[in-house]
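Ticket #4471: complex job returned nothing on first submit. Input attached below:
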Amino acid sequence: MNQLDNTAAQTQELSADEKEALLAELLASINQHKFAPDVAHIEIHGNQVLNKNLVEGLIVESETIEDGVKVHIRVQKGVTLKNPVNFCFGLIPDNGVQRIITETVIEEGAHARFIANCTFPNAVNVQHLMNAVITVEKGASLAYFERHVHGPCGGVTIVPVTRVIAREDSRFSTEFELIKGAAGVIELDYEAEVEKNATVDMKTRIFGRASDRIHIREAAHLAGEGATGVLTSHIALKNAASANIENEIVADAPHARGHVDCKEIVQDEASARAIPIVQVNNHLAHVTHEAAIGSVDSKQLETLLSRGLTEDQATDLIIEGLLAD
Amino acid sequence: MNLLEIRSISLFKEGRPILNNLSMDIWDGHVHAIIGPNGAGKSTLANTIMGLSGYRDFEGDILFEGESIKALSVDERARKGITLLFQEPARFEGLGVSQFILAGAKEKSRALVEEALKKVGLAPERYMKRVVDKTLSGGERKRIELASIYAMKPRLVLMDEPDSGVDIDSVKYIFAVIKELRHMGSTVILITHSPEVLKHADHAFLICAGTLVDKGEMSRMFDYFNGKCIPCAHVGQPSPSAQQTGSALQTLALQ
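Support reply: We reran it on our side without changes. The output follows.
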């Protein structure tokens, strides 16, 4: 089935039984089977919203487009959502396109945590395109965690493009995890505008294998006085995987604080390139960076070898630590 | 009975002898100390016994339970029951204390982690969920590394400066674990500068410039720390590499 055929198939309305079967398979692939009634969740397969459960203070509206779904998310002013909102995006077939366009607003003084599971367990030729605009209003907070579950073939192209506006006194954190399964091709591009006394924390943890190609760009513009930004990339690469990491913090305001942390473990024929860019345009601002690329640390390795672990076991344990949340 | 036999080993770095025709017998079930001035070759000897990278190419032989371990890798030696407490413990970003403690243990249980942490004086409820990274002090990491050795239940433990970086109130836990390891049947080799650590050994080897200068029971070997230096063959006729260490030994003797 070619890509166009598959897209056409997605647009066909599914029967209730088909939806239920897909939902079960989607959730099983992320080891999730049931949610408590007070937990908000939404499951999207291809361009179909399979299931949705909302809680008070959370508004989610969706619109089907040809190859995906547009989603508008709003957490209302002053609301603190007790439980994380669970999103599941995915495609069960081995090929196809899923485009997710989201616009999220966390209104003034509201607080929320989102968990997004993106699952493509059988992927051979799948594209997952995500375009997100997130606004965290004054005094609000959003913690966004995105976990990817891929199959062993690596036939996935992931293109998450996110633009964040963190208003005064707000907090935004995002964490992108892709550890299980082959990454495939990743083109991650996150950019944040950070206003007065707001905080943005972006972290990526990725294990690249085989011929995975990973490109990460994380950027934070510390525009307001006292704004803080931390960009962290922890990447492990083996076989012939490659990664290109660009972390950029620009501090324009007094007392802005930023830090870039990029650590990459490279094994076999893998290769990695890190470009930390730190720019300070105000003498009262302060931005630091650390980057380390190389093989597994010999001291760590020898410590574990001296406990009787084989080199492979020791390396796996060190990488597991690097990629731990 | 000898657990470990060091047979005329010599190890050179950049053409200089760091270990020089050194022989020792390590009795099974005892606590041994290796003492000597800075640069004498004490840590080099421990690293050579463990087979660390950079310490594999030496003359002579090392026998463990009567068999040569010269050709064995670090992990193969460890699986025979040899392990090393490093002078400077490594930091492991993201690796949990429990995972680290159980890394080399045959029994993988929460109870063992708790027991091991208690042995080194660290409250399990405070440490089990932490990570072995820079949020722990050097002393805490040292004690957690010792806990991992306790959990491993090794046949032979090499401890390189076991008290370094550990505060004075906590060092008693290090000594207690040394005693406990011995009680469990482990043989311990302490690499030390400290008379306090030496007290916990049954006997000691004094090395200087990579050569065994003396060996004996504690009562006599304490003289090294009491200003009565045992004559060193290298003092007065040192090799270029031994010159500094010979001087260091004399300096110590004068203190």
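Residues 6 and 24 of chain B are 5 Å apart (CA to CA). Closing as resolved unless it happens again.
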